[in-house]
Amino acid sequence: GYGHDLGVTTLGPVTETAQTERSLILVKPDGFRRGLTGEVIRRIEAKGYTLAALAVVTPTREQLAAHYAEHEGKPFYEPLLEFMSSGPVAAVVIEGQECIKGFRSLAGATKPTEAAPGTIRGDLGRKWAGTVDENIVHGSDSPESAAREIATREPAARSGRSRSPPVPSGPSGALHTGGACGAVWWCVVSKPGHALGCCM
Ligand code: DAT
Ligand code: MG
To answer: Ligand 1 pocket check: which of 25, 28, 132 to mutate, most ligand atoms within 8 Å of Cβ?
Structure first.
């Protein structure tokens, strides 16, 4: 079995500029089961994004509840959590200028039937029986989502503890790094004086 959670333990500061983004990519249980992890990572690397962290892990319901908070109450929420906890996923933190939007473009539309050829979902996905759309990959949809989703993969989040970074000043969307929390941390300023993020 997959007893070893390599986790995302220490992510250093981003390697490019203050505007460099990080996004959380998941090769979902369907993609992992089908052996498509390498193909997804190949496309990410071919596009020019960097792999900042990589782990194989079966998501817990707690992680998924935090990860998919925006979908709570929707008809597909329960099937979505059931599907996403059905087996291992490859969790990849990628890095690069505009990589959040860029990976969404690589992934294609949510429904594999509608996703354009050339995209991951368009080339490799299809509609299956079942309530939830199984579409091979997840990619963060905003800097705020990326910060929250990457935090769900932190050792502190997995053990139920949480650590907050100091709130820096700065423009909305700014990515900050620093040496607080006894480790490197990063966070995204969602509005001046208000930050979402976590210690790394
Ligand atoms: P995306 O993964 O493209 O960001 P999302 O965040 O709106 O899409 O939804 C999360 C996942 O939930 C999505 O990848 C597949 C599933 N899903 C979304 N809308 C759905 C729907 N109307 N019916 C079934 N499954 C759906
Ligand atoms: Mg989404």
So the answer is: 132
